[in-house]
Amino acid sequence: MPAAPVAAYTIARVLWRGAGREPREELSSKQAGLAVMAIRVLLALILSAALATAASSEPSGSLRPGSGEVSFTAKRFGVPTASGTFDHVDGAIALDFEHPERSRIRVTIETTSLHTGTALVDGFIKGESMLDVGHYPTASFVSEQVSRVDARSLTIRGRLTIRGATQAVNVSAIAERDPVGLRPGERLPFRATTAFSRNAFDIGRDVNVVDDQVDLAIRGEVLR
Amino acid sequence: MRPRRWHPLIIALHWLTLALILVQFGLAQVMRDEARDLISRFTLYQWHKSIGLSVAALVLLRLALRLVLSEPQPVAMPPWQRLAAAGVQAGLYLCLIVLPLTGLLIVSAAPIQIPTLLYGWIAVPHPIGPDKAIYEAMLRLHEALFLALAVLAAIHAGAALLHQFVLKDGLMRRIWFGRGQPLP
Hints:
By secondary structure, chain A is α+β, with helices and mostly antiparallel strands. Chain A has helices spanning 3-18, 29-57, 119-126, 198-201; strands spanning 61-63, 69-76, 79-86, 89-94, 104-110, 114-115, 138-148, 153-162, 165-175, 187-197, 213-223.
């Protein structure tokens, strides 16, 4: 990059003059502006180099757009009676299997993207008594602590927000391929499961067609 | 001179209503099976709501037709029996109109908010919003009215069978299709 030698040369000249080696020649405003710009370019170069080093030791990634999917299953007396899928799911995922505690996961689910197979059930779940998607168009999950179970499995403790209420949940995640040696641009498919209580989020109070516990299954691909 | 039978339209509506009530009773048993998947339960509920409101509409149509079509010749019977028969029939009519209305109030006041789509086509507006007290009261009333309907229907059918097989006065032929002489 030619900017680096130019910047170095300009800074050297400014320092040379500033030190009084050429006392009769005043620093013009044009030259001063050039110097400030040069310092900025240098700082930017140093910063980006530092960032590049950090990125190589702490793998980060995002949920590949269109790959994320959150499905729910509700039961009645233990028998699955309702299920559906949210297919608009976004996420920023920084996974570090060597240092799981450094991992950060944030997922946003568009509650309006639910489909269960019939408009009647969609309308019921999106309705005011349940998810109330008119007022709460998104649900989210933010990790708080990530710990490793084995080579491909993680336990993620985090906070789930639905209908404006936030509760702690534990998520079990399994990578579908070996996460070690994943190169930029490669995909890491995963599956995850968790469960929550409808009452804790005030979803369908008095609605007794399904049990209180709702199971969630999450799948997607992390893009390095 | 009065006809010997009810008008065919009235006869058709009478038996159609009976058939629909039997279907409603069957649906009510199946749709409440909580182990059934929600999509099929919701579909069954929509059928129950559609048929219930249709029954009310058909009964109102029948009452309107009774105003314009002439009634058949009365069969000779003691006045108290005539009065009892009329009372039971009035009770049946009332049940068949009020039962669907309590049903509509149940789904309107229910904590579960599901639209009422007649046969999947016509959206029926819910007159009130969610209200637990009304919901529970209407649920009880719906069941009590069904019980009343069942008792009245049993008396109605029992009396008809009594006329048919014991008194043998040909009363039941008045509510069945045909051109022959219904009276002996």
